[in-house]
Design the sequence.
């Protein structure tokens, strides 16, 4: 009789342990799913900035600091298959449309960096008060006239001179 009770006790202890753990796990999951004040603040954040205009980009990273400094930063990662100059040309042309979208209203300045692999080959900051879309001039010139170029690789600089870009430093 002594040997018959022992397995029964062992099974009861195991059953209590297993069921106790699963109840505890459910309680933890319920606690994690409760809304907090922080989550409600996140829903009031700035609208998502549309980056679809950068058609040839493999990735675009946006830092939206309008609430603090009225500034937006975009790092546009271009394919390594393009030359540095062609990647930069694409980004500048596509930023012409990017700068006109409603999603970036409230920004005084927008910095756009052109990434070729892990190398930043071109970076410029657009003063939004100086940016005026103008269909009578090339998009590159309209963007660069309102911009200050902060970084430019040698390859892009050679191309910019040949293409007669109006560079402000």
Sequence:
């Amino acid at each position: 009789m002594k040997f018959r009770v022992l397995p029964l006790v062992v099974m009861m202890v195991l059953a209590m342990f297993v069921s106790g753990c699963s109840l505890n796990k459910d309680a933890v999951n319920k606690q994690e799913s409760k809304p907090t004040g922080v989550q409600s603040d996140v829903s009031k954040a700035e609208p998502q900035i549309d980056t679809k205009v950068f058609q040839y980009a493999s990735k675009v990273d946006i830092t939206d600091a309008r609430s603090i400094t009225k500034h937006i930063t975009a790092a546009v990662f271009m394919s390594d298959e393009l030359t540095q100059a062609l990647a930069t040309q694409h980004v500048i042309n596509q930023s012409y449309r990017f700068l006109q979208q409603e999603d970036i209203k409230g920004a005084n300045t927008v910095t756009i960096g052109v990434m070729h692999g892990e190398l930043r080959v071109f970076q410029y900051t657009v003063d939004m008060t100086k940016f005026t879309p103008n269909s009578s001039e090339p998009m590159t010139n309209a963007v660069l006239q309102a911009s200050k170029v902060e970084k430019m690789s040698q390859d892009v600089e050679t191309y910019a001179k040949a293409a007669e870009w109006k560079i402000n430093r």
